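Dissemination and training. As part of the outreach component of the grant, students in the summer workshop were shown how a complex can be specified as a set of sequence lines and then modelled as a single object. The example used during the hands-on session is reproduced here so that future cohorts can follow it. Participants entered these lines:
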Amino acid sequence: MSDILSTVFLASLLSGGVITAVPLVFAGLGEAISERAGVLNVGLEGMMLSGAYVAFVVSLNFDSVWLGFFAGGLMGMIVSLLMVVFCVRLNTNQIVIGIAITLGAEGVTALLHNARYSDTYPRLPNAEVFDVPLVSKIPVFGDGLFSHHPSAYLAVGLVIGATWLMRSTGIGLSIKAAGDQPHALEAAGGDPRATRTLAVLIAGFLAGVGGAHIALVGAGLFVPAVTHGAGFIAIVLAMLARGHFSWIVAGAVLIGMSLSLTTALQLVGVDIPIDAVQMLPFLLILAVLFVFGRDSYLPAALALPYERDAH
Amino acid sequence: MTMLPSSSGVEADLEAIVPATESRLRKRVNTVLMAVLPVIAASVVGAVLLGALGRDPISFYANVIDHGLIGSLGRQESLIRMAPLLLIAAGLMIAFPAGIWNLGTDGQFVMAGVVVAAVGPELAPRTSGWVLFPILFAIGFAVGAAWSIVPAVMKAWFGMNEIITTLMTTFLGLSFSALLVKEYFDDPSTTVPQTKVLAVSDRLPKLFDTRVHVGLVVGLVAVLGVHYMMTRTAFGLRLRIVGMNPAAAQHAGMNMKALTLSIFLLSSGFAGLAAAVDIAGVQGVVRAEWNPSFGFTVIPLVFLARFHGPSVIAFIGAFAVLSIGGESASRKADLPNFFVLVLVALMLLFLAVSEYLQAKSAKAHMT
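and obtained this result:
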């Protein structure tokens, strides 16, 4: 009896953890790239929400999860254009604009949802999972880790790809220079503003995809504020990772597992306060920071506007 | 991210060119215009949205003004709402110019609110108001400050970025306060998890014969006091130097650790005091998962007011009218309250544009 319970428990913990982690990975990766380029994107939550809503509508009307993902990403990118105009071109305050984007997106998506779906509250069909050959047959872990919608594997692939991009390509170098030494980049013939624009658009797209995952795979529906603060958790993950994109995955899985721990525990009849469990990952991260975080480093020009005539 | 109200240099330049009185008047008119035009622009865009949603924009805005400003009940509600917002703003007016990005006010606010709501009803029968309120205020301030000790120490000693740590302490505070209400401070006589209720007769005294409590005065004094401290005292000057140029501050022999700690504790203490005032003034009780997320909207307002006390009061007053009036107007128009968020977002964007234009014209004057 008890080993059946623990199998159910573990599989639900892993699987729920991954489903919660995937949007954090997408959005966290986007934020990390944007921060590397020097733009602190506090509007991430708003971009995720916009992505979630549009992905939901598109997927509902065209009956295609992938089209939903793409539309969600595109919407996130469109919203991030505000960030480009205000924070990269006009150099207004990044935190003010970020908060404005989040508030506005929360309001607009809720209004649209209210106008169109408040009577019917439609649900999406379950997104189809993809069983990774061979490894998905491993008991417990196969079900928990290797039987997910393909976007989960895509997220991990993107993290690897982005790591390579930052390390081994000129674009990666430009992005890092735009965040650390924008004037040096300019002197070397690069364009800090164009680089930051690119990074912000990438972040918007990835945040939109992350939001789309919440609506299409995680919740299977849209309700106002469905992202539930995931954007802010992603900001924290990106800042903690400080350029090591793989740490985003680790942190996202840690947080995802903690959040799904309560559901998993309820499944086996253990009732512990959900609020206490939700504190665990952050307590753990703070403890780790306290012990190891003494050489904290963030891009030198993070959140500072770039002005050509400043020097 | 200018840490200081950057206009002072420009003022001097302008005054050299134009006679003093004329320039001052023009500056005043300009400042007011630059604050009012964005609000008008946002309202126009909002009106288009309302039209698209099939609602009458004119009656919506009339309701906002009527229920938030003109009607006596609504005006009192707006003034009541201002009290905690002003106190949060006072704290941010200390932190932001000093270059400390305390984004954790919501966690500090909610933690303090829960503790004050738990202690208040226990203490009230045993003391009189003159003792009770100072104690509750002190508890609120202390809990708010305590909730930022970890970010403060990590910033002061390890240089750990406070945006990460204060966001995390917010997540922690929201969960922990919910846990406290459900498991420890729960009033067993109610079905929903909530603290005991502070009797209406034990709440903060009211001003004149209105429903507005003295918390409003506390908030106004705090904002003006902080404004004075930051602009007219040596301590305030030190904080601004730390914000503008930490290296220079260190070279000048300032005790950076002590300064960083005091910035955090003061700033989050005010957020805690805001909660104490709100609980002892109007709420009287905290339900599990209570989070009005006041801090989140006050942060951009404080920036846009450029940490200038009277402007902060004006912005927060306008925001309170919009929130309170907007709630009733949305109800009447059968819209979800989310519409107010859209209006606030639009105003922030247009205010940022106006800030950009002002900075640009200031630069043009200097060259």
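The mean pLDDT of chain A is 87. Students were then asked to discuss how this feature might be tested experimentally.
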